[in-house]
Amino acid sequence: MNTRSQYEFQHVCPRNCFSNCTMISRVENDQIMTLSGKRTHPYSQGKLCAKGYSYIERNNHQERLKYPYYQEVKGSGRFKQITWKKAFELIECEMLNIQKKHGHLLPLAHYKGSGNVGVHHYVTDHFFTSLGGTTRIFGSSTATTGFEAMEYDMGTVKMSNPAMIKDSSLIILWGTNPAATNIHLIPFIIEARAKGGKVVVIDPVYTQTAELANLYIQLRPSTDGALATLLVKELLKADCYDKEFLEQHSYGYEDYLEAIGKISKDDLLRTCGMTEKAISLLAQWMKETKAISHIIGMGVLKHTNGGQNVRGIEALAAIHGDIGKKGGGIFFRRKDSRFFQNQLEADSKDTRVIHLNQPENRILPSRFSPPIEMLWVSGANPLVQEAGAKFWAEFLAGIPFVVTVDLFMTPTAKMSNLVLPTTSHFEETDIVTSYWHKEISLNEKAVSPYYESLSEWRIMTELAPRLRESGCSFQIHESEEEYLNAQFTEAVENRYFIKNVSELKNKQFTGSSDRIVWERRKFATATKQFHFFSTEAEAKGLQALPLFVDGPSPTEELPFWLITPHHPYTFNSQFHFLKLSDSEEAIVEIHPKAAEKLSIDDGEVVKISNQQGSIEIKIAFSHRVPRDILVIHQGWYPDSDVNINKLTPPLPTDMGNKGTAFYDTFVRIEKL
Ligand SMILES: Nc1nc2c(c(=O)[nH]1)N[C@H]1C(S)=C(S)[C@@H](COP(=O)(O)OP(=O)(O)OC[C@H]3O[C@@H](n4cnc5c(=O)[nH]c(N)nc54)[C@H](O)[C@@H]3O)O[C@H]1N2
Ligand SMILES: Nc1nc2c(c(=O)[nH]1)N[C@H]1C(S)=C(S)[C@@H](COP(=O)(O)OP(=O)(O)OC[C@H]3O[C@@H](n4cnc5c(=O)[nH]c(N)nc54)[C@H](O)[C@@H]3O)O[C@H]1N2
Ligand code: SF4
Ligand SMILES: [Mo]
Asked: Does 583 share its domain with 600?
């Protein structure tokens, strides 16, 4: 029974976040008065992060877009406020002109980012699919690198309920900083520690999560696979490995063991930038532990050898016998978190797909055949978030008509012709699924749209009838709820036993089974075994075995790694304007000894550059970073010109064709 008062509504935070917290708003006179986390959510348990608690402020922020705006010359800043009617006319006119000129709509492209991951927001993909052949542009989505690596080894990507981490006696966090990026995991980690479990953090940077660990291992970036191999060698030496798993449930382990037998320990230690002492305690703990939980984060993946490093960690987990056991396993993400109709139908058979993160596709829009003449950007801020900001600026400038749908005037919006204001999750109906925990929840509409904002469903619904002539088959529904009802599939019903929105209303949290994945050790590969040897990887020109492949390193000319991780108080390019950050202005963290060598003082503004470009930024001394690493948090710094992706080259990762090796960026520092 719903016992909430008439003025309470349930929402789900739709950020591309592990938690997708459920929250309750209390509304008076069409205004959200208070907001709190919903306590019955099994994963987030009623707590929000700093960004979540700031949502009321964000919702009414003076910089939120109120009206549609148009500028003829992109980047001129000469925006004119226009009516929605005029905006729809402009869009219709552009699309019809493309259709007339080319006889098809392939020059019309759309690019959807991860600004809002709710089911409602797949309406953009759905709409473009309904036009027949158009172009879909992908930027980077590095998770695909991890997915491909896991598919080589296990056939598919699965993950146990992350709350099970509380039962682990040894947790290893590889390249992830949940104290900043996945705060709801921390109580489970603390619970494991309280029960005597040990926590190990492996990261080149001494992070907020490292502070919570029993052991912190500082490794050279992009060498996780080498460290995993070192640990495998230690286990083998001590005869401490899961023989049954290797013999009965794996394929190709003999080849792997033979190959790593030939690699010297000293070489591996040198690669990882470590002494033997640094790994001996971890090796000892591993020998004493039955099953280990390995949590693999984006820090491992955002390198040119990221996928191969994931395979290295998986090989370690397989040899130690962690897979399919209580208190153990590999935690990365679940791949099967999209199962509504509009999520499944992302592309039509005629869609032209362009991966813009691939260097061979980094050409101007007019050079594609057919050229790109119109771009629709939704939930994305590529000018700030994609590698190679200079290229993206030129790319946007080269498209005759760019439409951006957002809540704020971002740098990308400023490089658009038409900027359309859209609703926040308090102003629309949605369903949010999670790639981490298993809950799905309903997001209710609580207040009227901010000024003239329209929901993305509404925008598409208004546009569709105007494009029937061009073959648009997007179906019109009466409401957002009806639209969502039409997206329910058998997969949703099988998992959650619900058929429509109203059933979800009464059954907000569903399907969190505590089954341990791969418990029967029957994998989804061709042999049903865990593959140390992958013919699929080999066929793609990759290593068949999970052996370490070295990546690029700093050079004399570009002596620093630039690591640009996610900040606790911002969300990618969102929330910077709230000034929640302890570093309101952009700063670069550098070890004082490295700065001393360059005669640079704390607080000094310096130039950081490489072959891609340069930025000017303030120095902050920090003992968290090694001497050859600089850290700048990724995101949008609206009060300065700093755009760190001016420095990141479009280097693809080794697997998953959307991956970008953001953390293989090398730079020099100069005094101004
Ligand atoms: N507060 C907040 N939360 C977020 C986000 C946000 O922007 N803000 N973004 C969300 C999104 S989209 C994502 S993808 C996730 C990302 O969250 P995480 O998985 O935590 O990933 P990153 O912040 O990219 O990097 C994590 C750590 O990897 C380290 N690292 C870099 N290179 C290496 C390496 O080679 N090996 C190892 N072992 N470590 C390395 C970095 O120093 C960093 O501390 O967070 C999500 N949650
Ligand atoms: N250097 C460096 N760059 C990185 C990373 C890194 O670690 N280092 N991380 C990468 C990663 S992991 C990711 S996932 C990407 C994220 O980059 P993006 O996918 O671009 O994600 P966001 O910056 O979160 O959001 C993009 C825009 O969506 C808008 N938005 C929010 N809600 C809605 C909505 O309901 N509708 C619409 N239309 N718009 C909305 C926001 O206001 C914002 O302007 O960045 C990547 N870029
Ligand atoms: S950003 Fe993540 S942790 Fe914060 S409220 Fe949203 S879902 Fe929860
Ligand atoms: Mo991400």
From this structure: yes
Assess if residue 101 is contained within a domain.
Answer: yes
Residue 663 CA: nearest ligand 2 atom is 8
Let me know: does 320 contact 235? Beta carbons within 8 Å: yes
What is the whole-number distance in angstroms between the Cα of residue 635 and the centre of ligand 2? 8
Tell me, yes or no, whether 603 lies in a domain: yes
Task: Kindly state if the Cβ of 645 falls inside 6 Å of ligand 2.
Answer: yes
**Domain boundary pick from 332, 359, 390:** 332
Name the residue with the closest Cα to ligand 1, atom 3: 181
| Residue minimizing CA distance to atom 4 of ligand 3 | 49
* pLDDT at position 506: 75
Pair (127, 227) in one structural domain: no
Question: For residue 227, what are the CA distances in angstroms to 219, 222, 494?
Answer: 8, 10, 41
Interval 71-92 mean pLDDT:
97
pLDDT tens-place string over residues 139-178: 998 899 999 999 999 999 999 999 999 999 999 999 999 9
Query: DSSP letter at 454?
Result: B
Question: How many of the other CB atoms lie within 10 Å of CB of 522?
Answer: 12
Output the residue whose Cα is nearest ligand 1's atom 30.
Answer: 299
Q: pLDDT per residue over 506-525, tens digit each?
A: 776 665 567 899 999 999 99
Q: Whose CA is nearest to atom 39 of ligand 1?
A: 175
The total of other beta-carbon atoms located within 10 Å of residue 63's CB is 11
- pLDDT tens per residue, range 377-397: 999 999 999 999 999 999 999
As a whole number of Å, the CA-based R_g of the chain is 25
Residues 401 and 350 in one domain: yes
Same domain, 316 and 360: no
Which atom in ligand 2 lies closest to the alpha carbon of residue 298?
12
> Whole-angstrom Cα distance, residue 253 to residue 643?
45
Distance from Cα 381 to the centre of ligand 2, integer Å: 6
CA 13 to ligand 3 center in whole angstroms:
6
357 and 275, same structural domain?
no
Task: Please state the domain count of the chain.
Answer: 4
Taking CA atoms only, the protein residue closest to ligand 1 atom 25 is 299
CA distance linking residue 559 with residue 553, whole number of Å: 9
Q: CATH number, domain at 596?
A: 2.40.40.20
Q: What is the pLDDT of residue 513?
A: 65
CA of 93 from ligand 3 middle (Å) equals: 39
Regarding whether 130 and 187 lie in a shared domain, the answer is no
* C-alpha closest to that of 584 among 637, 535, 625, 514: 637
Atom 18 of ligand 1 has which residue's CA nearest to it? 176
Q: Which residues line ligand 3 (CB under 6 A)?
A: 13, 15, 17, 19-21, 44, 48-49, 51-52, 183, 571
Q: Are residues 111 and 182 in the same domain?
A: no
pTM of the model: 0.97
User: Looking at residue 41, which CATH number applies to its domain?
Assistant: 2.20.25.90
Domain residues for the domain of 53 are 8-59
Distance 146 CA to ligand 1 centre (A): 13
Same domain, yes or no: 252 and 103: no
Choosing from 269, 298, 332, the residue where a domain stops is 332
CA–CA dist 565, 629 (Å, integer): 12
CB atoms within 10 A of CB 288: 11
CA of 551 to the centre of ligand 1 (A): 19
